Amino acid sequence: MFEKRFKIKIKQTAASIITQEKYLKFVLDEVIKQRNLLESYIVKDSIFLKTLSSYKVKKDAPEIAKKMAEACAIVGVGPMASVAAAIAFYGVKAAIKKGCRFIVFENGGDIAMYINRPVSVGIYSGEKIKDLALRVLPEDNIIGICTSSGKMGHSLSFGNADSVTVISSDPILSDAAATSICNLIKKVDINMIENIIKSYLASQVKAVIVIIDGYIFMGGKVPELLYRKIPYELITIS
User: Which residue in 79, 83, 110, 151 could disulfide with 69, CB within 3.0 to 4.6 Å?
Assistant: First the structure.
């Protein structure tokens, strides 16, 4: 059976999932479950929702809230900075438990994937640098590829980068780190950006790609860069 692309909408979660149809129900059930756990916890702990700083959750917090808080504390942002990738991570994890060997879950520009063959992942950074993609190779673990922008979309950012993409084996950390790095980059400053990238590579991050004003900065084990014409309807601006 071949994989298909499915568009889903569950409250604020508007995602694209590529996998075999027989795994979709398990993914959707898990998304609903994790959203409910988070929503119930936020009722008891509103600071978790609002804070922009590292935050220690309550002892009775669900696992997803704990993982979000732990990942975001590593890079100094509030736990909700990682919510999109956290939902994607648990969806992918649920599919794997049922025997899935290929799934790509993209949630607002943040991707969790488990793949058995190479996948091309496009990076949208506006009009100055277009049609750029990464050739991502399979690994024995879930891969997180998350992108944040200081110029596009509705997500809160204090920076000015066109895009910051972070790759790691923890999608939740990738999401948090992309937000954190994006917050720090205000302008094209070669030394500053290179130092920022180096500092994040020391915190379980595998690769960082920063695009700003027509410049590309990279560090770590960056996948092969490809020229790929990306269909406009597949572009997510988070």
Answer: 79
